[in-house]
Amino acid sequence: MSDQSASTPLSPHLQIWRWTVTLFCSITHRATGMAMYAGTILLTIWLAAAATGEAAFNTVQGIYTSPFGLIVLFGYTWALFFHLLNGIRHFVWDAGYGFSIPASRGSAWAVVGGSLALTVAVWSAVFMLGGN
Amino acid sequence: MAKHGTTHFIAQRITALALVPLAIWFVFALLSHGGDNRAELMEWIAGHPWSVAIPLALLILIGFYHMRIGMEVIIDDYIHKPDLRGWLHFLNTFVALVAGAIALWSIIAITLIA
């Protein structure tokens, strides 16, 4: 970093901040965004396999519906709901509301709880529908 | 995208807004079609161009665009070596473009084959 121009600001490192739920949501918004980058490549592979042929599709579907695959898809579902709900929280901020400490803390907990509840609801439906 | 902050901010929000209904639709669609065999999946996509194939293509293309600009911000924030930063920006754009193109090609192929 010694060659870095003095004009580029650097963020303080994560470990110096006291943990808060708002901090958690901020970091997790980025982490879930990055996770979905990978997850959407999995979706692309699924579609490409279907376009390619029976053998390719069955291989991919077999991996995705294996226990490991289902855990990844469960994680992808939660990442999607978290990023979706926290994204809506960002829209509320963009509109100029919800900046007080109690409001931002409350909405952060709502995002954490809501994303977990929606993920469990979707996967309960998956297993009740007897899908994969 | 450094020095294009306002354009970036607006593009991020417009794509985010479009992705809200598309993502919700897709999660619920997968409840019925996530476990499809190939014939069922292809019939579902090809048989419903307006209500499945096009929303699916929009979801993936807008999604990759949104992810590319999101990842650009992350690279700018955390990668301080100019060479590595430039390389990762290229890789980010390359992956998003190639994956988006493969997904679009797949949806078109499925629609034509089925």
UniProtKB/TrEMBL annotation, chain A:
<dbReference type="InterPro" id="IPR018495">
    <property type="entry name" value="Succ_DH_cyt_bsu_CS"/>
</dbReference>
<dbReference type="GO" id="GO:0009055">
    <property type="term" value="F:electron transfer activity"/>
</dbReference>
<dbReference type="GO" id="GO:0006099">
    <property type="term" value="P:tricarboxylic acid cycle"/>
</dbReference>
<dbReference type="Pfam" id="PF01127">
    <property type="entry name" value="Sdh_cyt"/>
</dbReference>
<protein>
    <recommendedName>
        <fullName>Succinate dehydrogenase cytochrome b556 subunit</fullName>
    </recommendedName>
</protein>
<dbReference type="GO" id="GO:0016020">
    <property type="term" value="C:membrane"/>
</dbReference>
<comment type="subunit">
    <text>Part of an enzyme complex containing four subunits: a flavoprotein, an iron-sulfur protein, plus two membrane-anchoring proteins, SdhC and SdhD. The complex can form homotrimers.</text>
</comment>
<dbReference type="InterPro" id="IPR014314">
    <property type="entry name" value="Succ_DH_cytb556"/>
</dbReference>
<feature type="transmembrane region" description="Helical">
    <location>
        <begin position="68"/>
        <end position="88"/>
    </location>
</feature>
<feature type="transmembrane region" description="Helical">
    <location>
        <begin position="108"/>
        <end position="129"/>
    </location>
</feature>
<keyword id="KW-1133">Transmembrane helix</keyword>
<feature type="binding site" description="axial binding residue">
    <location>
        <position position="83"/>
    </location>
    <ligand>
        <name>heme</name>
    </ligand>
</feature>
<comment type="function">
    <text>Membrane-anchoring subunit of succinate dehydrogenase (SDH).</text>
</comment>
<keyword id="KW-0812">Transmembrane</keyword>
<dbReference type="InterPro" id="IPR000701">
    <property type="entry name" value="SuccDH_FuR_B_TM-su"/>
</dbReference>
<keyword id="KW-0349">Heme</keyword>
<dbReference type="InterPro" id="IPR034804">
    <property type="entry name" value="SQR/QFR_C/D"/>
</dbReference>
<dbReference type="GO" id="GO:0046872">
    <property type="term" value="F:metal ion binding"/>
</dbReference>
<comment type="similarity">
    <text>Belongs to the cytochrome b560 family.</text>
</comment>
<keyword id="KW-0408">Iron</keyword>
<keyword id="KW-0479">Metal-binding</keyword>
<keyword id="KW-0472">Membrane</keyword>
TrEMBL record, chain B:
<keyword id="KW-0249">Electron transport</keyword>
<dbReference type="Pfam" id="PF01127">
    <property type="entry name" value="Sdh_cyt"/>
</dbReference>
<comment type="function">
    <text>Membrane-anchoring subunit of succinate dehydrogenase (SDH).</text>
</comment>
<dbReference type="InterPro" id="IPR000701">
    <property type="entry name" value="SuccDH_FuR_B_TM-su"/>
</dbReference>
<dbReference type="InterPro" id="IPR034804">
    <property type="entry name" value="SQR/QFR_C/D"/>
</dbReference>
<feature type="transmembrane region" description="Helical">
    <location>
        <begin position="12"/>
        <end position="32"/>
    </location>
</feature>
<keyword id="KW-0472">Membrane</keyword>
<keyword id="KW-0349">Heme</keyword>
<keyword id="KW-0813">Transport</keyword>
<dbReference type="GO" id="GO:0016020">
    <property type="term" value="C:membrane"/>
</dbReference>
<dbReference type="GO" id="GO:0006099">
    <property type="term" value="P:tricarboxylic acid cycle"/>
</dbReference>
<keyword id="KW-0479">Metal-binding</keyword>
<feature type="transmembrane region" description="Helical">
    <location>
        <begin position="44"/>
        <end position="65"/>
    </location>
</feature>
<protein>
    <recommendedName>
        <fullName>Succinate dehydrogenase hydrophobic membrane anchor subunit</fullName>
    </recommendedName>
</protein>
<keyword id="KW-0408">Iron</keyword>
<dbReference type="GO" id="GO:0046872">
    <property type="term" value="F:metal ion binding"/>
</dbReference>
<feature type="transmembrane region" description="Helical">
    <location>
        <begin position="86"/>
        <end position="113"/>
    </location>
</feature>
<comment type="subunit">
    <text>Part of an enzyme complex containing four subunits: a flavoprotein, an iron-sulfur protein, plus two membrane-anchoring proteins, SdhC and SdhD.</text>
</comment>
<dbReference type="InterPro" id="IPR014312">
    <property type="entry name" value="Succ_DH_anchor"/>
</dbReference>
<keyword id="KW-1133">Transmembrane helix</keyword>
<dbReference type="GO" id="GO:0020037">
    <property type="term" value="F:heme binding"/>
</dbReference>
<comment type="pathway">
    <text>Carbohydrate metabolism; tricarboxylic acid cycle.</text>
</comment>
